[in-house]
Amino acid sequence: MTKAEHLDSARSWVVWAASLGAYLIAVTQRTSFGVAGLEATDRFDASASILATFSVVQLVVYAGLQIPVGILVDRWGPRAMITGGAALMIVGQFLLAMADSVASGLVGRFFVGAGDAMTFVSVIRLLPIWFSGYRIPMLTQVTGMIGQLGQLLSLIPFVALLHLWSWTPAFLSLAALSVVGFALALVLVSNGPRTDEAPPAPVKARTLLAGAWREPGTRLGFWTHFTTQFTTNVFLLTWGYPFLVSGQGVSPAVASGLLSIFVVVALLAGPLLGAAVARHPHRRSAIAFNVIGMIALTWLVVILWPGRAPIWMLVILIVCVALGGPASMIGFDFVRTFNPAHVIGTATGIVNVGGFLAALVTVYVVGWLLDIQQRAAGAGAELYSLDAFRWALSFQFVVMLGGIIGMVVTRNKARRAMALRGEYTPRSQRRQGNISGNQ
Questions:
Q1: Neighbouring residues of 247: CB distance < 8 A, sequence distance ≥ 6
Q2: In the prediction, which pLDDT does 45 show?
Q3: Residue in 118, 137, 112, 119 with CA at minimum distance from that of residue 127
Q4: How far is CA 301 from the centre of its chain?
Q5: 293 with 401: CB under 8 angstroms?
Q6: d(CA 92, CA 105)
Q7: Minimal CA–CA distance to 396: which of 306, 315, 302?
Q8: Helices 120-130 & 48-76, crossing angle to 10 degrees?
Q9: Can you give the pTM of this predicted structure?
Q10: Are the C-beta atoms of 136 and 127 separated by less than 8 Å?
Q11: Most CB contacts within 10 A, which of 6, 351, 376, 415?
Q12: DSSP code for 6
């Protein structure tokens, strides 16, 4: 069998569906702690900085493992990485369920972050193995879109279990869910059919990493992911729920409903952005810049709003922030079109570091700023006041500015490299729009 004969086959869709199920479960594990933030504060008697540390540990592990995972995916294949990730998340959620101290809870989140880190890159790596190139931008968006349904599992049934059954049974149910993800990957996911082609010679990890990073398109993908996704992670993983309930004064039920908007936006916007990227590859960075501008503008309005923002304004804010998730997938499309096949996993890992690196810095700094303001206000001051959130969450603008600068610089370098190869001129871009690797 040649490589092309299995593309877009029935088995391709089975493999993708199984890996997608494993990713959906991984997203559930990732976002579960964000909706348990108030319960965690009581269980561990934690300050805002300590609460932020739980998410920071998870994000540090996730971001730190992206490049090693990308290299291992290129060497071992996606199946081993997805099953291994599910096994680590089983251990992590079990440990968190039994944790009665900050230290033991952090160990649990460490394992959850490690398992989560192994999943998404592996699922993305399966796409060029099993599908034709023209399908991949849309499938990448749909993968991210369906994966975000995991947020609904953490927002609705998990929150209900947390309130009805308490901490330990709720987190044990998440461990059981990861058993399902492990079984799906073990039984149905495949690294690809056997072919008549000779296997590629093994490449040193340093060579893979250097080759991927040297490509300006990889760095453009990194900064695109960095800037578009981090606000979504900050909101969902740690500070969105406390900001809505304690800062904006909405009820927990309304806050859960508002957070579910992230899933609705992903379901609606993901396919539209995927189609736009596939049809207009030369406008990918422009699409990302527009989304970033919308996020920045709505955050500015909410932060400057006199008093608590009305529900309709919070809805607009969440819709715009939620667009960052689908927009971050543009970074992976840069990976696909700028890199050779044998380094796609490594380059994907590099790009996926971006949004999580920015998020972990922001999550921690926001918690640190909240604690500083409480101490400055004196004994008995409220930790999660609206004014404190305004100052703390304004740090996001600093991170956005850094990401935008990175995008502009690397986009210019990518265009210059393409021009030297005769693949890019602004005039021919506007006239033809037919270059798969342009921005």
A1: 308, 384, 385, 386, 388, 389
A2: 77
A3: 137
A4: 25
A5: no
A6: 9
A7: 302
A8: 30
A9: 0.73
A10: yes
A11: 351
A12: G
CB 137 within 8 A of CB 278: yes
Place of tokens 């997203």: 27
CA distance 329 to 229: 9
| Closest C-alpha to 44, from 106, 110, 111, 89 | 106
3-state class percentages of the chain: helix first, strand second, coil last, to nearest 5: 85, 0, 15
Tokens 């930790």 appear where? 383
DSSP 8-state class, residue 247: I
Amino acid at 195: T
Length of the chain: 439
CA distances to 53, 92, 308, 417 from 59, rounded to whole Å, are 10, 14, 30, 33
- Count CB atoms within 10 A of the CB of residue 171: 28
Looking at per-residue pLDDT, the higher value among 2 and 92 belongs to 92
Q: Residue 128 and residue 136: Cα distance in Å, rounded?
A: 7
DSSP 8-class letter at 250: -
Confidence check: pLDDT of 160 > 50: yes
Q: Where are the alpha helices (DSSP H) in 36-148?
A: 37-44, 48-76, 78-98, 102-117, 120-130, 136-147
Burial class (CB in 10 A: 0-12, 13-18, 19+), 185: buried
Q: Residues 247-280: pLDDT tens digits?
A: 899 988 898 888 888 878 888 887 888 788 877 7
C-alpha dist (Å) from residue 397 to 145, 231, 303, 376, 379: 26, 10, 11, 23, 30
Closest by CA position to 359, among listed 228, 197, 263: 228
| CA 138/CA 143 separation, integer angstroms | 9
Q: What is residue 268's DSSP assignment?
A: H
Residue 130, token pair as written in the block: 């099993």
